[in-house]
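Quick start: what a row looks like.
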Amino acid sequence: MRTSLFACAEIPGGESYHRLARTPRFRWWVPPLALLVFAVLLFFLWVGVLVVMTIVAILGGSGLAPDSVRVGEIAGLAFGLAAIALLAPVTLFVARVVQWRRPGSLLSVTGRVRWGWLARCVCAGAIPATAVAALVLVVSGEGPSDLPVTVGYGSVEVLAAALLVIALLVPLQSVAEEMTLRGMVMQLVGSLGSPTGRSAFSRVLRSPWPAILAGGTLFAALYAATHPGDAWNTAALAVLGLGMAWATWRTGGLEAAIGLHVVNSLIQFGVCAVEGRLDEVGTGVVLGGGLPLGTNTPMTLVLAVVQVGLYLLLVSALARRHGVARRSAPVPA
């Protein structure tokens, strides 16, 4: 129980992940207000980032050093990843101040990150990522001897700086994206169904499927709006998003979605750094969400289905074996 009128609401007892925002403090106007506050904070965040990135781009392209253009690309990547990483505190702020609940309920049904489970998910994510990479080599007909052995940067120092930025910021970016798409969005939708409603509409809203659909397809819908001709990339993003949303509900937290997202993004960005293609990050060619391929072909969708399907099988098996909690702890009688 809350000991103070001003204390935030505790995590609802015995609920699935998507229902954790339906606390005793919930009111019908909380979801639209949360979206409005998030949009306002996001606007000011991106205005600040654009100003800083503009300054960095001007300085990076000044030609004062041989690698100034590459340094500008790395700085732009760093600010872009850092800007996305800032979505994490924004979502935590919305949960604590607007929804007036424990911010940890965004992370899992236990109200915290389950670090051991997260480590297992990261290791599990490396398996389908490796399998997809091998499948790409088989399909393309290339072998290890055909791969490029030179890097696309002028010096080892610049390449090392790029890889360091990726290693430090990509995990934070991946966590922030999952907290927004699979965390805030899923729980906002999941909070809509009344716990006492007996109508078919209320039962549907209480079920996980509207939340999974919203959290799994939002990014794909935004990508389709900005890249209307990339149908295969959009479909692959939808597969990835829906798979991660289902895994979040199935395992009671964001760890499973974060695990695959981090592995995919580290591989994608690392390859781009080695080949000198950081300017393609965030475009239809290379997506931070972790597409196996960004070439907008049917193979993009096939690889996404293979990767997500294999990962979900592994995560489900591991969750059963280790007894990962799917619901929050019951309220003591």
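That is the whole record. Residues 62-66 have pLDDT under 50 and may be disordered. The chain is about 65% helix and 0% strand.
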